[in-house]
């Protein structure tokens, strides 16, 4: 019974690691959305040194989310 | 009896009319156009099998067909292998099972185009950043050679589709009767034997569905291909759907593209039907 318990724990750890691998592209997507254009090229993987929300405001202005959504539906 | 028949047609009518207008008629027109010199607006001449003769000597088309075939074989295997493994993993009654299911399914919530752009960034920027860190030259410029571009597409597709296929496998895995597995365990069968002789035959219907879905999706792949490699380098990672699109709208040869599409349709239909036929035969009745 103990061996079974241990193998289950190993499977659980393996599952969590696999889940993290699966999520990694989303991590990059979210983290990079807070970086300045320059920092995306110099600092690809780590968290941004300076958090900037500029990308969001620019995207919101250019895409005009409210109107695009209304047109879609 | 008469009024029942009337109601039957009244209810089925809208669906039949929609199907007729949106699917059946365009198909018939499309096949007809492929025998003419249609340019998108008008037909001046019916030229018979001219286009079909030409396309078998079209190296671009043949190359993309070969590339698509290779891609489909590899990605169908990868997606189903991953999907089944993930399904087995999350049906182990772990504490994190439900959470993991959500995570593995998540790539399906985003459209293929955007995923393609995210992975383009990963293959170009992130891979080279990791390569520099650990000093591996092989991680540089993944989308600039044909072989690595091919694997990049396979990785992207497997990552996206595995979660979807996982859901199908889960539903069949959960309907496998527990008493069968327990009886086998008492009789001394190990985990692999139980999987091989009980679980595997009982999830055979899931294979029929998943193989069909992955096969037809891999063959028809367009958006991931467009946003990840855009066919480059030198159109060597261009798949059939993209080749047909380019023939139609970049080179403006509508009827020729239509002929290619008809051949492509026949090919995909033939492969899928054969696959479903053989898989159906393998299914066992409970």
Automatic annotation (TrEMBL), chain B:
Protein name per Swiss-Prot or TrEMBL: Sugar ABC transporter permease
Annotated compartments: Cell membrane
Domain ABC transmembrane type-1, chain residue ranges per copy: 65-275
Assigned protein family: Belongs to the binding-protein-dependent transport system permease family.
Record keywords, A-Z: Cell membrane, Membrane, Transmembrane, Transmembrane helix, Transport
Taxonomy, superkingdom: Bacteria
UniProt-listed Gene3D superfamilies: MalF N-terminal region-like, MetI-like
InterPro entries, per the entry: ABC_transporter_permease (IPR051393), MalF_N (IPR035277), MetI-like (IPR000515), MetI-like_sf (IPR035906)
CDD domains, per database record: TM_PBP2 (cd06261)
Keyword Acyltransferase applies: no
């Amino acid at each position: 019974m103990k061996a079974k318990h241990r193998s289950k724990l190993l499977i659980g750890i393996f599952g969590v690691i696999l889940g993290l691998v699966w999520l990694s592209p989303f991590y990059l997507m979210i983290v990079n959305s807070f970086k300045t254009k320059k920092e995306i090229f110099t600092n690809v993987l780590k968290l941004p040194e300076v958090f900037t929300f500029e990308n969001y405001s620019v995207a919101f202005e250019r895409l005009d989310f409210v109107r695009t959504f209304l047109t879609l539906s | 009896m008469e009024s029942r028949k009337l109601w039957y047609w009244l209810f089925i009518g809208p669906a039949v009319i929609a199907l007729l207008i949106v699917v059946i008629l365009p198909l018939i027109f499309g096949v007809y156009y492929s025998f003419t010199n249609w340019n998108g607006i008008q037909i001046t001449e019916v030229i018979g099998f001219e286009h079909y003769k030409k396309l078998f000597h079209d190296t671009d088309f043949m190359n993309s067909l070969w590339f698509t075939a290779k891609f489909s074989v590899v990605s169908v295997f990868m997606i189903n292998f991953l999907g089944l493994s993930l399904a087995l993993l999350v049906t182990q009654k772990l504490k994190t099972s439900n959470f993991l299911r959500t995570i593995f399914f998540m790539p399906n919530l985003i459209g293929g185009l955007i995923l393609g752009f995210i992975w383009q960034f990963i293959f170009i920027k992130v891979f080279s950043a990791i390569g520099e860190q650990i000093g591996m030259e092989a991680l540089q410029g993944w989308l600039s050679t044909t072989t690595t571009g091919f694997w990049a597409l396979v990785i992207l597709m497997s990552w996206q589709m595995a979660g979807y296929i996982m859901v199908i496998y889960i539903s069949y895995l959960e309907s496998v009767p527990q008493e069968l597995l327990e009886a086998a365990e008492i009789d001394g069968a190990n985990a692999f034997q139980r999987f091989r002789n009980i679980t595997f035959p009982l999830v055979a219907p899931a294979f029929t569905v998943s193989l069909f879905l992955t096969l037809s999706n891999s063959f028809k792949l367009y958006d991931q291909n467009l946003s990840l490699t855009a066919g480059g380098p030198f159109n060597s990672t261009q798949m059939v759907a993209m080749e047909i699109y380019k023939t139609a709208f970049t080179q403006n040869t509508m009827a020729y593209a239509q002929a290619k599409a008809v051949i492509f349709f026949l090919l995909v239909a033939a492969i899928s039907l054969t696959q479903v036929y053989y898989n159906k035969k393998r299914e066992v009745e409970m």
